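Listing S7. Sequence submitted for prediction.
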Amino acid sequence: MTLRTPVTKQVEVTALYLSGHKEREIGRQLGLNRETVRRIISQQESSILLRGYREAVMKIIPHALIGAYELVKRLDRRMITDVLYGTRVLIDRRETEETKPDQERTYDYPKVEYFAKYGRWPSLEEAKEFEKTMDIEPLVKKES
């Protein structure tokens, strides 16, 4: 069966699928029916392409992990933050806006800055005290 969906759109679907997006999400984002997304993903050519991409990615993962490890060892703040976000130790600012008001603040940002400066993870009390010495204002959600 030949699809009428443009090849560029099929490539976008495949790329989003490879990056972990769900079929429904891909359809919404690209303006496609979920069934169309499913057909694109299940095409024999797409399956072969997906397998090839997965194999290529699997080959570079060890090198990427070693590179990330080396950057963290050198206290690269960007990589430390990315690793902490990726492992869900830190959460995205948009996610914090959805939290309940009665939840306790975690002081994640001061903890990362403290780690970058002193090379060890602080206690909650140390993070609170360290935040007072930081030059930037803490982020606070605006009242609507």
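Caption to Listing S7: primary sequence and predicted structure tokens for the chain studied. The chain has two domains: 7-58, 77-133. Helices lie at 7-18, 23-30, 34-42, 44-73, 77-86, 93-97, 108-118, 124-133.
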